[in-house]
Amino acid sequence: MMSTSTNAEKSEQRRQRRVTIPEHPQILDAHSGNILAQLVNLSVAGLMAMSPRCINCGTVYQVRIPLLVGDQSVEIQLGIESLWSEDANESGSHWTGFQIIDISPEHQKILNSVVGD
User: Fold this and answer.
1) Which candidate, 80, 3, 70, places its Cα nearest to that of 37?
2) Of 22, 48, 61, 108, which one's alpha carbon is 20 to 30 angstroms from that of 81?
3) What distance in Å separates the CA atoms of residue 80 and residue 88, rounded to the nearest whole number?
4) What is the tally of structural domains in the chain?
5) Confidence class of residue 116 from pLDDT cuts 50, 70 and 90?
6) CATH number, domain at 59?
7) How many angstroms separate the CA atoms of 71 and 34, rounded?
8) Which segment of 42-46, 80-84, 89-93 scores lowest on mean pLDDT?
9) Per-residue pLDDT for 36 more than 60?
10) In Å, what is the CA distance from 99 to each residue of 13, 58, 86, 89, 102?
11) Which is nearest to 80 in space by CA: 103, 111, 101?
12) What is the pLDDT of residues 50-74, one digit of tens each?
């Protein structure tokens, strides 16, 4: 069972503006280059992804994500930590929520422009 503070934190994160990313770009492990998941939505502090496997809570990744800014493709690099993961309707895919734990000021500006913040 979740503690009250965890529920409060989750509630605060949900209040942040989320933008669905229609291209569903691949989220790549920055070290191995392997595909981790596809980006579903994005906020200034986190993201939701869909992956073919469960990603355990507390798992930390350094990732690269290509995003469209206007008509240009730019890649941002982030440190992310998984907060939750659940089966996507027994389809073999999994939804995972991540918080952003590391991002450069330059990439934060790009992220803000994509989210419209």
Assistant:
1) 80
2) 22
3) 21
4) 1
5) confident
6) 2.40.10.220
7) 26
8) 89-93
9) yes
10) 9, 10, 16, 23, 9
11) 101
12) 999 999 999 999 999 999 888 899 9
Task: Tell me the pTM.
Answer: 0.83
Cβ atoms 116, 83 nearer than 8 A:
no
Question: Which is more confident, 116 or 106?
Answer: 106
pLDDT attached to residue 18: 86
Alpha-carbon span 91 to 99, nearest angstrom: 24
In order of 15, 67, 88, 90, the CA distances from 9 in angstroms are: 10, 27, 23, 28
Angle at alpha carbon of residue 5, lines to 88 and 107, rounded to 5°: 65
First-to-last alpha carbon distance for the chain, in angstroms, is 33
Q: Which two tokens stand for residue 82?
A: 């998984």
Q: H-helix or E-strand containing 100?
A: strand 94-103
For the segment 7-20, what is each residue's pLDDT rounded down to a tens digit? 444 444 456 788 99
Name every residue whose Cβ is closer than 8 Å to that of residue 46 and which is 6 or more positions away in sequence.
13, 16, 80, 83, 97, 98, 99, 100
